[in-house]
Write a structure and sequence with these properties.
Layout (H helix, E strand, L loop, with lengths): L1 E3 L9 H13 L15 E4 L2 E3 L7 E2 L1 E5 L2 E6 L1 H5 L7 E4 L4 E4 L1 E3 L19 H13 L7 E2 L17 H7 L5 E5 L3 E4 L1 H6 L12 E5 L5 E7 L15 H17 L2 E9 L1 H12 L6 E7 L9 H8 L10 E9 L31 H13 L4 E5 L2 H17 L8 E4 L5 H10 L2 E5 L1 H13 L1 H4 L5 H6 L4 E4 L9 H10 L16 H8 L1 H6 L17 E4 L16 E6 L2 E5 L5
Helix pairs in contact: 3-4, 9-10, 10-11, 15-16
């Protein structure tokens, strides 16, 4: 038995679609065959094709015509569709899956700052900064890249002011950690005139040693006390070249779609040009970032400057909505219960609310009335309370159900919030932060609360739509690390945490494929390998469904196809 799309009308292969529709109406499913005048362009056979379509299950072969899957079934039946010009690839038993998505991708990381991504101890980190200081004129600013976390260090702690002073006493140093924290040395504190008397800005935290001295930490809105030099400007052609290389790396691990949670108009312009030139090798959903300072009366002015419409675009590049935020990150998630001591400051520290709640609610209502989909960063349960309040207020005026509104991250949830999420049709966009950051989260929130981050099993059991991603470069972009963590609940340096929140391998694969497509409102186009769907797929170096747990992290793609075109391959397939 094999399956052929019967009613495909996409212009990319309209003659094939019409032919198959006609044949489907005349023959029983077991007798379906295509005319040799309109053969598929590519056939993959002798494999284990996990279609993620419950009607098809796992098959041996796929036929691809134009941009889409034309047939799925046994090797013998699908090979009968081949014509003289059809390319055939023997999968040699390898596993094929729909292309993976990343639901929360900022970028691949790297750049011109000091690279801390590979350091594994505090001494290594400080040595990297000292190396840069040795070739930098005294007094000149040194900045690190952001794609690292103290969870990767043997000491399981941040480098603080005194540490940085030893590494670079004659240079101002700003260590950028993720998207929510800077750490400054003494010279940098002097450079920006930050002292023990500097007031903490609303939604920000200035860190101190136990004796009251500044320890160099600036969390969330407190980072606004520092004005880092703008990134080196890039021409359009340079930006496009950078993105092409970035997407090539994503293709090599099987990623075929990404979602930017807060992009700038300049990035969108570059992506539009890439789409125009047919240079995209991943499908891109863009959420625009609304500045935190925007007030409801200024909203229309900001939206008009973007000159984009909600939902504009096509299957390659689409505007997916607007990203907002209401709390901090690891060190600033807004909780109902105070942080663990000593970070909890005697039971008075609950994290950071980074917005005025009334203004946030009004912005959400206003965006809904203007037809915009909203996604909100919310780490803690108190932050989720505010998000649900605002979403319910917007829904009371104009329904947001079936509009694919989302909460980004949702580390810590309260049981009473689950039904509210389901009633509103809220989607959960989750990532594998605990895998890297477990020791820090235990210090901030205690072992019990940290162990529930992120409660994927709880969300699935509540009947919620959950998709997966990485938050790269905060967490490395490899999707297999995410699936390894969700399946095993193992972390890099703190063992297994929250074992009861683990999911099965097929469930993890669904989060990265079917549910990512649903989040992007593209489930009729991608996410499965059923006939008629876009031919986005990855041929894996190992079988994710059967390999040992220890092998999951090192899975890659030996052949990645997007829209019927090979975008990454190795010499393992012919």
């Amino acid at each position: 038995m094999f399956h052929i799309a019967g009613v495909l009308v996409q212009a990319a292969f309209l003659p094939v679609a019409l032919l198959l529709a006609a044949v489907s109406s005349l023959l029983a499913p077991g007798e379906l065959r295509a005319s040799q005048d309109t053969p598929p362009d590519l056939i993959l056979y002798n494999g284990k094709v996990v279609t993620m379509d419950p009607r098809l299950g796992t098959v041996e072969a796929l036929a691809i015509a134009g941009e889409r899957v034309a047939a799925a079934g046994s090797t013998a039946d699908v090979l009968r569709l081949a014509g003289p010009e059809s390319r055939t690839i023997d999968l040699q038993g390898r596993t094929v899956i729909p292309g993976l998505g990343d639901n929360h991708y900022h970028g691949i990381g790297g750049g011109r700052g000091v690279d801390l991504s590979r350091v594994r101890s505090l001494d290594e980190l400080l040595a990297k900064i000292a190396e840069r200081a040795a070739v930098t004129p005294a007094g000149e600013l040194i900045v690190t890249n952001s794609d690292w976390h103290e969870g990767q260090l043997r000491e399981q702690r941040l480098p603080l002011r005194d540490d940085l002073d030893r590494a670079a006493p004659n240079h101002p140093v700003v260590v950028v950690r993720g998207g929510h924290e800077y750490v400054l040395n003494s010279a940098a504190l002097r450079m920006w005139q930050i002292t023990e008397k500097t007031p903490e800005p609303p939604g920000g935290k200035i860190g101190r040693y136990p004796d009251g001295r500044l320890n160099g930490e600036l969390v969330d809105r407190a980072r606004g006390l520092v004005e880092l030099p703008p990134r080196e400007s890039r021409t359009l052609e340079e930006t496009i070249a950078d993105l092409r290389e970035e997407y090539r790396k994503l293709n090599l691990v099987g990623i075929t779609s990404i979602r930017y949670p807060g992009a700038a108009p300049e990035l969108y312009a570059a992506l539009k040009e890439m789409r125009k030139r047919n240079l995209l090798t991943v499908r891109v959903t863009v959420l625009f970032r609304l500045p935190a300072s925007v007030t409801p009366p200024a909203l229309d002015s900001v939206l008009s400057r973007w000159a984009v419409a909600p939902g504009e675009g096509d299957e390659w590049l689409k505007v997916g909505g607007i990203k907002l935020g209401v709390d901090g990150g690891f060190e600033g998630g807004w909780m109902r219960r105070p942080y663990n001591e000593p970070w909890g400051n005697g039971g008075n520290y609950y994290g950071l609310s980074t917005v005025d709640p009334d203004r946030y609610r009004e912005i959400v209502r206003s965006l809904n009335l203007r037809g915009w989909r909203v996604a909100t960063h919310a780490v803690g349960d108190a932050a989720i309370d505010l998000v649900l309040d605002a979403y319910e207020s917007a829904d009371a005026v104009s329904s947001i159900r079936e509009r694919r509104w989302s909460i980004e991250h949702a580390f810590v949830v309260a049981p009473d919030q689950l039904d509210r999420m389901k009633r509103l049709g809220v989607l959960l966009s989750v990532q594998n932060h605990l895998y890297v950051a477990a020791p820090s989260l235990v210090r901030y929130w205690g072992a019990e609360r940290a162990g529930r981050v992120t409660p994927v099993r709880t969300y699935l059991d509540a009947g919620l739509h959950v998709s997966s991603g990485t938050d790269s470069p905060v967490i490395p972009y490899n999707p297999w690390w995410t699936m390894y963590h969700f399946v095993t609940r193992r972390t890099i340096s703190a063992g297994v945490m929250g074992f009861e929140e683990r999911v099965g391998r097929m469930e993890a694969l669904k989060l990265a494929t079917v549910e990512n497509a649903y989040l992007a409102a593209a489930e009729k186009e991608r996410g499965t390998l059923a006939p008629g769907m876009l031919a986005d797929l990855a041929v894996l170096s190992r079988d994710f469904l059967t390999c040992d747990d220890s092998e999951i992290e090192s899975i890659g793609s030996v052949l990645t196809i997007v829209g019927g075109k090979i975008v990454a391959s190795s010499n393992q397939v012919r």
